[in-house]
Design goal:
- InterPro entries: 5_nucleotidase/apyrase, Calcineurin-like_PHP, Metallo-depent_PP-like.
- One of its GO terms (molecular function) is hydrolase activity.
- By secondary structure, the protein is of the alpha/beta class.
- Helices cover 19% and strands 25% of the residues.
- The protein has a single domain, classed as Purple Acid Phosphatase, chain A, domain 2 (4-Layer Sandwich), CATH 3.60.21.10.
- Strands 1, 2, 3, 4, 5 and 6 form a 6-stranded mixed sheet that branches. Strands 7-8 form a two-stranded antiparallel ribbon.
- A hairpin with a 4-residue loop joins strand 4 and strand 5.
Length: 138
C-alpha cells in the first residue's frame, strides 16, 4: 500500500514512488483493454474495508471492485481471509460466491495458511475471451 513510504522511508526515499491504488487501477484498466487484454486480474497488496473512499487509502479493495473492466481481484494485507463470515456485513460482499460487487475476490489469510482460488469460466464466442461465471474461495 502507499503507506510503505512511511514505514520504510529510509530505504525507499528517492528510489520508489507510490500512487493511489484505486486511481492507478482506474487509469490502467481501460488502457489494458484497449491494448487487447481480454481478462484483467488485479493483484493488490491491500485490504478490504467499506470505509468511505479517500486517496492513498491502505485498504482499497472494495473500491477496486467497483471499477469497470476488473474481472477478478487477488489481494492481501490484513492477514485475514476473504471470503469469510468476517466480511459478511460489507455491502456488496457475497460470501457464498466470493465476490465483491459481483467481482470474484480472494484474500488467502497469512503465512500460507490458506490457498486462494479464483475460478473464472470463460467463453470466446465473439473472438475475445469473456468471463461468463466466476467465484472465489480461500
Amino acid at each position: 500500500p502507499p503507506q510503505i513510504m512511511g514505514w520504510d522511508k529510509a530505504n525507499l526515499s528517492g528510489k520508489v514512488t507510490v500512487n493511489d491504488i484505486t486511481e492507478t487501477v482506474r487509469k490502467y484498466v481501460p488502457e489494458m483493454r484497449e491494448k487487447g487484454a481480454d481478462v484483467v486480474v488485479v493483484l493488490a497488496h491491500s485490504g478490504l474495508s467499506a470505509d468511505p473512499y479517500k486517496m492513498m487509502a491502505e485498504n482499497s479493495v472494495y473500491y477496486l471492485s467497483e471499477i469497470p473492466g476488473v474481472d477478478a481481484i487477488m489481494f492481501g494485507h490484513a492477514h485475514a481471509v476473504f471470503p469469510s463470515k468476517d466480511f459478511a456485513d460489507i455491502e456488496g460482499a457475497d460470501i457464498a460466491k466470493g465476490t465483491l460487487n459481483g467481482v470474484p475476490a480472494v484474500m488467502p489469510g497469512m503465512w500460507g495458511d490458506h490457498l486462494g482460488v479464483v475460478d473464472l469460466q470463460l467463453s470466446n464466442d465473439s473472438g475475445k475471451w469473456q468471463v461468463t461465471q466466476a467465484k472465489a474461495e480461500a
